[in-house]
Amino acid sequence: MNSTKNQYIVEGIILGNNDVLKSFYKKNFPAVRKIILKYQGTTEDVEDVFQEAMILVYHKLRTGDLELHQSIHAYFIGVCKNIWKNQSRKKRMLEYSEPIVQKAEDNDTSLYDKITNRDQEEVFYRHITKLTDSSRLVLGLFFEGKSMRDIANSTGYTEGYTRKKKCMIKDRLFQMVQNDPIYAELIA
């Protein structure tokens, strides 16, 4: 790709030029999809990785932290691969770690309360598994007591985006649990 075309795309991304962004998406999305699906990803994973990579590249371009020595397309595909590798590695680590939330058993708690709490936890965990891998990772790190900076470093997001994403995930999870008929039965 010639440097003039590359510079046009870079400037279009920085300025949010709709035509450039659509063209960039059409050119790169199929390649990203192919890579992620080849390595056991889902369509949702493809969309998440693509969005995360776009945000990362946009911020690097906007702040001037990126010197391109190749085409923006090749760089972007490389970013997507790295994000996917990191997410896959963290997903495997999360699958083998202990459950996200543990409740200490209280000897004074009645059997009914213990069963109800266990049932509520099952509803909660069932809905957590419906979240994307990146969403589960953010929540898992949050529940472990990690700071937003640590979570941002682990996920590759900016600290501000991490804070926003955590709130969106918690809201989505809360809505999913609230709309579950079993949960409604348990709290009635």
Automatic annotation (TrEMBL):
**Keywords attached to this entry:** DNA-binding, Sigma factor, Transcription, Transcription regulation
What's a Gene Ontology MF term here?
Answer: sigma factor activity
Which biological process terms from the Gene Ontology are attached to this UniProt entry?
DNA-templated transcription initiation
* Matches recorded under InterPro entries: RNA_pol_sigma-70_dom, RNA_pol_sigma70_r2, RNA_pol_sigma_r2, RNA_pol_sigma_r3/r4-like
Which segments constitute the RNA polymerase sigma-70 region domain? 24-92
Cited NCBIfam families:
sigma70-ECF (TIGR02937)
PANTHER family noted in UniProt: RNA POLYMERASE SIGMA-E FACTOR (PTHR30385:SF4), SIGMA FACTOR F FLAGELLAR (PTHR30385)
> What is the name listed in the Swiss-Prot or TrEMBL entry for this protein?
RNA polymerase sigma factor, sigma-70 family
